[in-house]
Each structure stands twice: as C-alpha cells, then as structure tokens.
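Note to self: the last two entries modelled the partners one at a time, which told us nothing about the interface. This time every component goes in together.
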Amino acid sequence: MNLIKFFIISFLVALSFFIFSVDVRAEDLLINNNNKKQDFVNKNINVKNLTSSVFNPTFNSFIFLKKNQENELPASELYEESWNTNFLKAYSNITVPDSFSIDVSGFVVPISGKVTSPYGFRKNHFHYGIDIKLKEGDTIRAAFDGKVRVMKFDHKGYGYFLVLRHYNGLETVYGHLSEFLVTQNGNVKAGQPIALGGITGHSCGAHLHFEFRFLGDAINPAEIIYLDGLSLKDNKFVYIKNKYENQCHFEMSSLKNSKS
Ligand SMILES: [Zn+2]
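The predicted structure of the combined assembly is written out below.
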C-alpha cells in the first residue's frame, strides 16, 4: 500500500515539474485565444522599454506602448495609423479600451499660474480643460515628449491652438496662443517651448486653455494634477472608459464644444 502511495506521489511531482517547465508565454496564450486585435501584442517587446501597459478585456490582450521611437507615430498601438492634422477629435472609428494605465511621470507644467477655470459644465457648454492665467507672450511648454499633430487657428473657440500626441498614449491641447514655436509633425520634448501664450479665439483675458485627452476623450485634469500648483498627483493615471461615456455623448451633441 505504501509503495502504491509512493508511486502516485512521485508521479504527481514529476507531472507538476513537467507542466511548469514548459515555456508558455502569456502573450502566446492570449494571441491564440481567437484575438481579433492581436496586432496590439508585440511578442518581441522589451519590457524595460515599456511606458504604459494594461490587460485589456475588450481586446483580451495586453497593450504595450513603445518608448520614444521618433520616426514612428506616438502610441500607434492605440491610435493605429490615424494622424489627422486638421481636427482635434478624429478618432470616432477607433475602439477605446475599457481601461488603460498611463505613465504620466514625465509631465512638465506647460505654464505655472493660477487656474482661473476648472474642467466641467459651464452655463451653456462644457469646458473640456482648465484655464491657466498668464501674460501675453509667456512661454508655453510641452507637457510630455511627443509630436505636433494639429497646429491651427479656430477663430470661434481655441484661437491659435496646438494638439500634441504623446508616447504615453495621451494627447494635450493648448489654446488661445499668440505664436507657435514648433512645426507641424515636429517632435517635441517635455518642457520644450512650443508656443507663446495669448488671447486669440474666444477668450476673455490672456490665459492658456489646456486639455488632456485620450483617444479623443477629454480627461478632467484634476485627476492627473493638483489644480493648486499644477504638480502631478501620481506617476500613473488609469483611464476608465465608462467614467467618460456620458460626457462623451454630451460632447457629440454639443454644438458649443470648443469655447475657451
Ligand atoms: Zn478654457
């Protein structure tokens, strides 16, 4: 009887060694799981180079963003080939992940100053960013490393404005500028002067209108930075899609969606 027990135990131990010694990568398992978005998964990725990653239930895969590949479009794993240089909102055809963990540790304050208007509902429209008081001609800096996607004039709303796409998956918007210091499609480093502040467009008094966006959805800056002092709250920001869904619908139906 003892001999039988010994053989059974030996067999189970040998079996467990066999199972755990087989080199099965999690990514391989995920890819084989009938994954419609398997292009998101880079099997040869070097984990040390990752800026942001998250397990995404929608795609049943991990999404990894490569770090600073300056010859490529930033965060192309999320934004695919989309690179619209005319419009801020250009991602209606792209599926937004349910959640996404974003490395915001490289954040640089675009301009120090008092926040004169927060994100949220105003009398007759929604305010998608924050307003930071400045003097006309003050230097505005890039919030993260990235690339200049939109560089336009919007006389009814943002005035002269910039949209930067960043390698961490976010986009940032800078409005009411008086002068651009960058070029369309040019690469920018965090903290690099990108423009001079002003009063262009729909603006009462000189200020910077500043937005964080993720795949077109405006994020409340107060979730990422302290409005008093504009310093980072955490090195990581987790975007959660449902949190912004209602506001998103409002955005679609709103006609006055780009004011100051
Ligand atoms: Zn504003």
